[in-house]
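Me: I hope this is not a bother. Any chance you could explain this protein sequence and its structure tokens? It all follows right here:
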Amino acid sequence: MGYKTDIEIAREANKKPIQEIGAKLDIPTEHLLPYGHDKAKVSQEFINSVQGNKNGKLILVTAINPTPAGEGKTTTTVGLGDGLNKIGKRAAICIREASLGPCFGMKGGAAGGGYAQVVPMEEMNLHFTGDFHAITSAHNLLSAMIDNHIYWGNSLDIDQRRVTWRRVMDMNDRALRDIVTSLGGVANGYPRQTGFDITVASEVMAILCLATSLEDLQKRLGDIIVAYRRDKSPVYCRDIKADGAMTVLLKDAMQPNLVQTLENNPAFVHGGPFANIAHGCNSVMATTTALKIADYVVTEAGFGADLGAEKFMNIKCRKAGLAPSVVVVVATVRAMKMNGGVAKADLGPENVGAVKAGCPNLGRHIENVKSFGVPVVVAINHFVTDTDAEVQAVKDYVAEQGSEAILCQHWEKGSEGTIDLATRVAEIADADIANFAPLYSDDLSLFEKIQTIAKRIYRADEVLADAKIRNQLKEWEAAGYGHLPVCMAKTQYSFTTDPNRRGAPLGHSVPVREVRLSAGAGFVVVICGEIMTMPGLPSVPASEAIMLNDMGQIEGLF
């Protein structure tokens, strides 16, 4: 049987005008700011007007550690949202925007797949409504103003060796990781070493995704530490007087984007911090707005539950006062086989033994999520090659863990394929049995917070950090930043910091290479192992195959 490609399905979508999608959530036409016919921003005025509404139920979709076999987290998020609407619930989806870096690099586009997609797919994967460009511009405006301040006499007495604010662009470009700027003599300023990160790793991205209003946005931007003086006292963004202009650049980007699924259900696509080097959740603005106007909100957190879900709970929920009612952990039979030691090329033939051998990775994620006090359901994202015996092996394993696994066929059948999952998830959410709490309290020391995550989520024996890093953490505590949560930057492929260690390893250590204070976003970034804040392109980047065909349509983006 021949299956249509994601892009063929997306092109055949029967899209409705975005005003009709807004009407499903009672958003009046005048409060939708259209970007073409099929996407719009929701006005700040409307968002302010619904703040008195009761919150709907929050459902988090997360996954096992990703494998090259693919888990389909976004696809399941979309399928579950469609399934909830199918069974008569008023549901909305909240997902992240795609970064151009991975689009043209390794991953290609991201908006779901098969018959569980969000459209317009091409625009969402390219420039969309310009949010990432606004973030890039705001970030780099601050960079320019810092160097300009130093050039014109440096009245703040910034130590040029201690400028911590780098530059960003939304592209994978390893050549810019470590560079020297201001060469060429007096007219160009003072040479110094700096570098670029990818836009999704920018603190401005994290701030946009955690801010609750334009006032909060400007305050957080002002709180960014951009450099230090010789006496090690911090220089803030507001000292450079950049916070006002940055807020102006971000004014429209703060408003959530509304689009639709293939089944014409509402989807908010807003913000997009990476989950391995940032906090990996869509914006607080989008999630909290959706909760005020929908009865069920399905959102996802990036990569495996050891990264995305942990940060969703410990950072986003803590900061925004949110609490999930139920968590869905996505797994595939193929990924279980890979965790069980089968090579990617050999995933086709039935291998129940390998499925069973790979299940402990899933088991650990279930256990970890439950430790936050939230009930867990496993969604088995069905592939046509899966056999009944393999699916049953996963179901039996999950039942032994005191949870349940439900087979989902949304990729092939859309909402028809998630009715069982949607029904069960709604039942659990309505039962109000969640007793959510973050994993650690604000008043633990920063190093103890790192240890808590390393030991309880990654199951490591110890955290390795030299005196320089421990002293840095103590200095930040003395400066009043000890109450902040920690944002772990670590490989997504393993519970450990070694991307090749699959399954559920024990007896490993977590080496901390560097710590960065994101005082505006409100967390401390802890860089573990070999993690890059500016990815590179692979030897054959996806961009080589992206082009316009004779009909003017985009090929190769998915």
About this structure: The CA atoms of residues 161 and 381 lie 50 Å apart. The chain is about 35% helix and 20% strand. The chain has three domains: 6-129+253-431, 133-244, 446-528. The domain at 446-528 is CATH 3.10.410.10 (Formyltetrahydrofolate synthetase; domain 3).
